[in-house]
Design brief:
The chain is built from 2 helices and 10 strands. It is of the alpha+beta class and about 200 residues long. The protein folds into 2 domains: about 35-130, Carboxypeptidase-like, regulatory domain (Immunoglobulin-like); about 150-195, no CATH class. The strands form 3 sheets. Strands 3-2-5-6-8 form a 5-stranded mixed β-sheet, with no helix packed on it. It has a 3-stranded mixed β-sheet with strand order 4-1-7, with no helix packed on it. Strands 9-10 form a two-stranded antiparallel sheet. About 15% of the residues are buried.
């Protein structure tokens, strides 16, 4: 057996410290600039949380489903959901299954959909027309999804799609200069940042 040097022991301790540090981070609903997330809490009618409830989110446009299970505090989280409308189902042993027909998930947003389940048979289904909380309380990210109707209906001076950036919240753009390189490009400032600090 070889003798371990003090340098290698410090390296091993340093790696162990970093691993512990990164494993203790607070989990947060993840999303990217092209995805959103959905989160919430499942409770019974008295307000007590239901751990182990199964939540299924199905994208109405693609039919793709994702399933999550509530943790010990009754919370669930779907991260990295493509933008769109979702059919969400909540089920748990000894509780009636609840279906929420359409929940809208937009890019960079984390809607909160809390659900209360009534005691009963799991095979009994209750359909709810509920909306997720529209106030963005999970993080400070701002985003906007521009649909094809908006693209065709907005009068753009040079039909340059980059002018649509000015319709997003927190964006200030100068008047487009059709003679500039790029045929109608414009300087864009987002949330008070300079035009050279954007990834647009």
């Amino acid at each position: 057996m070889g003798v371990r040097s003090a340098g290698s022991s410090r390296f091993v301790l340093w790696v162990a410290f970093l691993a512990a540090l990164f494993s203790c981070g607070v989990p947060s609903p993840a999303q990217t600039s092209g995805t959103g997330a959905l989160t919430g809490t499942v409770t019974d009618t008295s307000g007590a949380v239901i751990p182990g409830a199964v939540v299924t989110a199905t994208n109405l446009g693609t039919g793709q489903s994702r399933t999550a299970t509530t943790d010990s505090t009754g919370n669930y989280n779907f991260s990295l959901l493509p933008a769109g409308a979702y059919h969400v189902t909540f089920s748990a042993q000894r509780f009636k299954t609840v279906e929420v027909r359409s929940v809208s998930v937009n890019v960079t947003e984390v809607p909160v959909l809390n659900q209360s389940l009534a005691v009963g048979s799991k095979s009994e289904r209750i359909t709810v027309s509920a909306a997720a909380e529209t106030l963005q309380t999970q993080n400070a990210a701002i985003g906007k999804l521009t649909g094809s109707k908006e693209v065709t209906d907005i009068p753009l001076s040079s039909r340059n799609y980059t002018q649509l950036v000015a319709t997003a919240p927190g964006v200030v753009a100068n008047v487009p200069n059709a003679s500039a390189i790029g045929n109608g490009t414009q300087d864009v400032n987002v949330n008070g940042s300079g035009s050279d600090q954007n990834n647009t």
